[in-house]
Amino acid sequence: MRLFNSYTNSVEEFKPIEDNKVKMYVCGPTVYDYAHLGHARCYITWDVLYRYLKFKGYDVTYCRNVTDVDDKILKKADTEGKTPTEVSQFWYKQFTNSMRALNTLPPDIEPFATKTLGEMIAMIKDLIANGYAYEADGDVYFRVKKFKNYGYLSKQPIDQLESGARIEVGELKEDPLDFALWKRDEKFGYNSPWGIGRPGWHIECSAMSRKYLGKTIDIHAGGADLIFPHHENEIAQSECANGCKFVNYWLHNGFVTINKEKMSKSLGNFLTIDDMLKNYDANTLRLFILTNHYRMPVEFSDEALTSAQAGAKRLTNAKQTQINETLDITQTDEYKAFTQAMDDDLNTSKALAVLFDLATRANKDEKDAYTILYKLGSALGFTFEKSSLTDDEISKGVNEVSEALGQEFKTMDEILELRKQARLAKNWDVADKIRIALDSAGIVVKDTKTETTLERK
């Protein structure tokens, strides 16, 4: 398996530190608002990596943190007259619901910043003792120039960084490049050796990854927007505190863009996951994201999502047969083509081509085609179970049929019974009107020898 390492700027053979075990850390959300499509791109991407590593037989420990103390959370708490804890707990639940709706697997470990303060303080004390950090009137800063490799990840020479650096009002830095490890905050802060305050954002991930995964980890992933300064600062403080290499493989996903601009809350051009899921299912959003290579930008458009929706239906509507549990898919040509694509720096677009071919062959009743499609598709996080219609969707269908037939129906069962009787009486006019009305509501009626089912269009 080969992965693009952002640190070395090259594709490298993946070799875990410890035999078959993989320690993987992904920067998690700052919980103060709805998650958007940019977050979906990030967490679906690393969900696929997590799933695929497990699919390959690795014993993976996936840690993704939750930032529940931050300027944005404090600002929202002030604005809404709530405590920071109330704000962060509410939005964490929203984030969790959004991730579940996208069918992303929960991480094995999900630490909260406020529950790891002791580890952060201990790491800061180590940095001060080693001369890499200093206290200034309740704040603690990291001495950037003492770390000789600073800027290596982001490929930014120190002199270029210096030209854009400045000291904010109230800061007592020795150098404009120095960044905060601890911030004085007597209103919302916590006790520390330097007075009441709260951690800087960067130290959170360093302390949590060290606590739960160890001083050196296999994979650290996140969005490309985190390369500088967040990941650059993580490397500096971790390696100076621990005295060893921090991460072996740095992986970064590209942005989701709208009109060639990065989707973000600050630009006000973001689409929330919850809003997207009102019009598109999780399989569609996943396919939209995986059609593009994870390192490349993804341009959002209705056309792209409509195309992804058609592709997702092609996979999930493939003719389903009994899963052959005894089939060893590792011996099939499709498995080999799929893993060859995924082993090439997660080339999901090529892997999807294998799935589409299998869907076509499943529809032709080719032996074991559906079994292979199901198992390979599941490794990418696609679901093949037919999801039930929501109450709103059923209500819309009932209203459409009522309008089409000029009579009021209260339940879908009434409509299906009328359709059944119409078909028995060969009253095709009524049966067709019901089918067409439900179709316009986005509902497909499927008949088998034993039952009639409703599915999303």
Describe the structure.
The protein is an alpha/beta fold. It folds into three domains: 2-257, Rossmann fold (3-Layer(aba) Sandwich), CATH 3.40.50; 280-379, Up-down Bundle (Four Helix Bundle (Hemerythrin (Met), subunit A)); 391-456, no CATH class. Helix content is 45%, strand content 15%. The protein has 16 helices and 15 strands. It has helices spanning 37-55, 71-80, 84-101, 117-129, 158-164, 201-213, 227-242, 273-279, 282-290, 302-316, 333-343, 348-363, 369-379, 391-405, 412-424, 428-440; strands spanning 2-5, 10-13, 21-26, 59-64, 133-136, 139-142, 179-184, 197-199, 217-223, 247-253, 256-258, 261-262, 298-299, 443-447, 452-456. Helix 2 (71-80) packs across helix 3 and helix 10 packs across helix 12. The longest helix is centred in the first third of the chain and has 19 residues, at 37-55. It is globular and about 90 Å long. The mean pLDDT is 93.
